[in-house]
Amino acid sequence: MSNPNVPTPHIQALEGEIAETILLPGDPLRAKYIADNFLEDVKQFNATRNMFGYTGTYKGKRVSVMGTGMGCPSIGIYSHELIHFYGCKNLIRVGTAGALSEKLKVRDMVFAMGACTTSNYVRLFGLPGDYSCIASYELLSKAVEEAKAKGLTYHVGNVLSSDMFYGPAKSVTGGMTWSDMGVLAVEMEAAALYSNAAAAGVNALCIVTISDSVVTGEATTAEERQTTFTNMMEVALSLA
After folding, report:
1. Residue positions in the annotated binding site for a purine D-ribonucleoside?
2. Which DSSP symbol is given to 116?
């Protein structure tokens, strides 16, 4: 029976055009870069709102990639539709993050075992407490093994999914910081992705590359963030 919910208001793909495993960069141009440089037999399935999506093969395995935009609400929409209307089972965010720990250097890779958040997204599920947003162990363990096999520099731990890219100039809380609690880096989407995946019983993992450091001030260029960080992309694609 065909799915009456597709195409959706945000994804123009027809039923069957999106693979069960999908990479989710925030930047739609990074999705295009991945499709152009890593996938074979590529077919574009989405251009609605210029949020480009593609399906192809990687080492003989079918895989898709699509941009999600920035922030929990945006990835929340796309991941919900991909899971519930297109049957995606393995959703892998690939993106950038800012280091909160001096242990992390620019261009290091982080596998987000868990995601703290300042967003209200998780609370909207109406749970009677605070939900811990965690990755799929199946995907996490595979990613770690792949990184080990490639001899890559990586870290596994907690990240912060923040609703604010530009934080307040001054903090007057006087309390503990995220880094005091061992949080490695800050990004903007993992908590929503993990929550949607958990609610649907599917797998999700967030893999980020450190693009800048709150601690040292070191940063990469916008062009480098869009078109490099190939180690992260290759590890993510190996999970298909």
Report:
1. 10, 187-189, 211-212
2. E
